[in-house]
Amino acid sequence: MKSTVLTGILLSAFALSAADQPKSIETTTKIHRLESTQRSAFDAFVYVNRIPDQPEDGELPEDFAGRVYGRLANQEGRILLKLPPTMNRRAYFGFKTFLGSEGDVNVANCVSCHAPSGFSDGKSHVVEPGGPPKPTPSLRNLKLNGSDLEKVIRAKIAASTARKSGAADDVAAAYARMDLSETDVPDLVAFLESLKDVEDGKFRDLIIKAEVFDATQPVPVPTLPPPPAPAKINGERPNVLFIAVDDLNDWVGCLGGHPQAKTPNIDRLARKGVLFEQAHCAAPLCSPSRTAIMTGLRPSTTGIYGNLNWFRDLPQYRDWVTLPQWFRKHGYLAWGGGKLYHQAHGKFSDAGAWDHVYSTRTGALPPPLAARYAHGLRPKFESNPILARLIDWGPTDHPVEANPDWQTAEGAAQFLRRDHNQPFFLGCGIYLPHLPWYAPRQFFEMHPIEDIELPPFKPDDFDDIPPIGRRMGEEHIQHIRESGKWKEAVQACLAADSFADACVGHVLNALEKSRHRDNTIVVLWGDHGYDVGEKKIAKSALWEQTTRTPLIIHVPEKLRDHSWHTATSTCKRPVSLLDLYPTLLELCGLPPNGRNEGRSIAPLVRNPEAEWPYPAVITHSPHWLGNNHAVRSERWHYIRYADGGEELYDMGGDPHQWTNLARLPETTLVKGELRRWLPATNAAHYRGADQNRKQ
């Protein structure tokens, strides 16, 4: 039978004439593939149903189209609503049964990804037929108030339990397929409550495409249209200059995180490329963040949540093809230097992933021993030995060119000055402004101590946040504030930022003078943010100060085509550094790695104002705090802690995140919408083979 493509409201475009159609009605079991706009919690997915092939006697083409569309839009047919991601896989099927969908597990499994969790990625999915259609309850069932909904859910749970235990034999078989538990009730009630005032017509707006296939024939696997092919210069694929700056928060001129930041080179790159104003890390800690970037996998997938864990020690990731390796696999030369992974040398540098590692040293040369820890605060940090060792600052009198970070930049510059007989992926990792904040004296002089402005701070900031949040805040910033050394710390961080910027400028200047300037995509990113006194001193938290980081992607004009819309060079959509892997593959015209969990933001590079319904998701899950996540949408910043504690901030009116709105009843729907983006599962905390055995 012929496939029929139904597109949005254009269903009325069926070229049917009532006079030309047979009088009988023929129905056939078909498979429908739906693509949803993914604009809200009630997403459209794939289902099996029976729809009419022909109009009824006297039915106009418009009437027939409306009737078919009505079934697709859940008036007579079925629609699968996505469960909040806090639910587990089996609860997902229970939820579907609760709403009267097929209920059989194989109906919901996508032929391509074999898991319902994959339905959240915005792509088309095809399901396998799994039994006869069943009637769908009306949406009026969702009009119940919260207490009535809870009674219904608990009754269904009780009925299912009774049947499974043999206490009752006459309970509908559908109930037996449910696997809801008491712990699922609050989230399920909140989710259903969010739908109770939705009109039927709203569901129609969500369906942007529906393809109908004969269920008796092989179902074609859905394919997305190919992205625009990248331009080539002299037949060459684009090169990539991949610049990482460690602990670089939004204290750069183009992001305005501190009014006195002086970063002219990064600002210059931002004016040429696309500056993502809401770029967030996958994890606010070095190794988890960089592992996510290089593998294209979430921390909640790998279990790499800390700095002492190396992903290749896990058997399933020992041979994982990382970002530079994917480029090498497709004909690129890959050179890396400085801090690109957690370390610039040894196991944590993944040296085997590169054709050549040109720099293994990082940071700035320290001052003489007698000049170190002059702030006198080191004893205050003894409870945190890592911070006690690292938290130092001050100017040095070494030549700029003698510092390891500058030498890393010079290694990248030398590479760019040469000719190469194949396209290249060049990684350059700058360590500063990671602690300690040592930098050549000239960069401290750029920020006179008497002029330093302190970051905003609210003394009772933590009074309305959950206990785990307060633990992430830690007490060490209080030592700096009370000592009168806070201005020194801010000055030192600004100086370290300016030195890192100079290193970046050295590389960019070399590119500008090279033959590669018109054929090299430049990506600059910080691995996460860093808080210098607003809430804490350090990273390792889920607030904006520690999750937001610079991200700039510059594609030379000669590599752009008519699909580019660059009237603005800033993008306000929230994006994740997890997205860099698939983005660079698309921009360079390489085959996608189907195992990437990020999504390409190349559409936003081409048009920074394009629609983007996806938030950024951040994970911070040290083994002593459990699984904790944040979700950043364009308006909201939501935090969910392992013990169920929550924070919610309206970033438009509260950019410093001082007023936690999570306890307000009117934010229930907002939290429910954001909560659905949280990871459905969290990998065990990998702490190394020996440590895991002891747990």
Hey, roughly how much beta strand do the residues contain?
Answer: 15-25%
Mean pLDDT across all amino acids: 77
Helix-strand makeup class: alpha/beta
Overall form: globular
Helix coverage percent? 25-40%
The counted number of beta strands is 20
Structural account:
With 695 residues, the chain is an alpha/beta fold. The protein has 22 helices and 20 strands. The protein has an 8-stranded mixed beta sheet with strand order 8-7-10-5-12-15-6-16, with helices on both faces. β18 and β19 form a beta hairpin. The N terminus is likely disordered.
Short description:
The termini are far apart. This protein is 28% helix and 15% strand. By secondary structure, the protein is of the alpha/beta class.
